[in-house]
Design a protein that fits this description.
By secondary structure, this protein is an alpha/beta fold. The protein contains 18 helices and 21 strands. It has a 7-stranded mixed beta sheet with strand order 15-16-14-13-19-20-21, with helices on both faces. Strands 3-2-1-5-12-11 form a 6-stranded mixed beta sheet, with helices on both faces. Strands 4-7 form a two-stranded antiparallel ribbon. Helix 2 packs across helix 3 and helix 12 crosses helix 13. 54% of the residues are buried.
Amino acid sequence: MSSVDGAGERYVVGVDYGTLSGRALVVRVRDGAEVGTAVHEYRRGVIETVLPDGGPALPPDWALQDPEDYRDVLRHAVPAALADSGVDPSQVIGIGTDFTACTVLPTLADGTPLCEVPELRHRPHAWVKLWKHHAAQSHADRINALAHERHEPWIGRYGGKISAEWQFAKGLQILEEDPEVYRRAERFVEAADWIVWQLCDEETRNVCTAGYKGIRQDGRYPSTDYLSALNPGFADFVTKLDGPLLSLGERAGALSARAAAWTGLPAGIAVAVGNVDAHVTAASAQALGPGRLVAIMGTSTCHVLNGTHPAEVPGMCGVVDGGISAGAWGYEAGQSGVGDIFGWFVRHAAPAGTASHERLTELAAGQPVGAHGLIALDWWNGNRSPLVNHDLSGLIVGLTLATRPQDVYRALLESTAFGTRMIIEAFVEAGIPVTDLVVAGGLASNRLLMQIYADVTNRPLGIIGSAQGPALGSAIHAAVAAGAYPDVHRASAAMGRVDEGVYQPDPDNARAYDALYAEYRALHDHFGRGGNDVMLRLRAIRNTALDAAAARTDTVLEAIG
């Protein structure tokens, strides 16, 4: 990054919390110039098999994190980004953050995570549940069934299904699998709000996660009567997650002396209200107007879109008034696995000589559309939208002795584009137009993948003008919280950027993909909508086998002990 000049310039810091690391970005308020950045890798990463420090093994589909990793991003990435920028800290007027979601943790009343309470350290439910913790699917199924049985008015705002990733499913899982941890949890908070609490010693909630992940619609959460019908002990859940609710771009508080010492920033500067990594990116991509769908593509993909009115879109993650920006109805959808799928193939299935994204992309790029004879379903990590079922699994049809690694790789790339087209068509069929796409995230650099998306969706595709879309979006919100701009729309116009129409659909390829997409959709509906539940049965058989193996291991250890 380049050093800055001009003592009169003002700067803000955006901090983007991802799945494996956190990034800090120093941004000039006047024009959004990015002048310094740094990344800090989480020490614990994703905790999926066993709790740290001699803790117990974890069941299938668990994904936890250590909140100390989040504090370490403030201690290491923010000072390093400042040093990289050359900015005098006195010129920084605000800090904003964004987070993966739904990533939630139980805490004491003062925000202390329960996993940091010594006697709860080895209780898995005391830890942060990462967004891709999918072990609460059965709880989500009950939440959905009861909501439909009672005709709860909010269920339609979420496409008819609440996800296993969200607050209520994860909270119900804690109650029913570890009632003591549930009882000790005085607060149940999104990591997006918890990190803001750490920064300014003020507990707040943001309208984005409250609406999309916390089932808050029309000014209220699900009723106590409904929660009691799920489980009498769940009646108090809303009291654990409700808190001061603020709009995006508002000031949550002032940077505390403790957080100033961590970051090297001046105490008292503005701390913006928490936000979600995908939603905050719409501002940096100058995509706050209706009809422009932003796809934030990395390990997974989140799709966000502003509309002028509320509509019930089957399988969507939700529609929230002001959920992306004030004055619009924000829609969210997503795919639970995208880059993770490609990474799985490179790590575990590609033979020597082809086991890199670069080589496989090069080999796959020369193929005509459909030449590999394959169709894949992109459910390696379940389906977030539109089926909202994380027990679904991946599928490849058409394999022969002539199939080569690049064929499978291209089919996997295409499968994720077909999944995005399913989401777009659900929006359009519900009366929410999608005119074009803007892609952000690490996968935007794969030119073959981007052209496939343009061809499959038959829409022009722009690329965000920043490699750090979420961090820039958080910085934009920090500038608004600090009073540098009156609202996020005007801050986005000045500080965001996008390269318009970089990829245009090829008419011949678009027609060829129409035929493949018809096959994808037939498989999608057959395996995802009740035609054949073999994927769900296989998941149940796997879980039974793993549980039995774990029980045998415990018996042996008890005998030895």
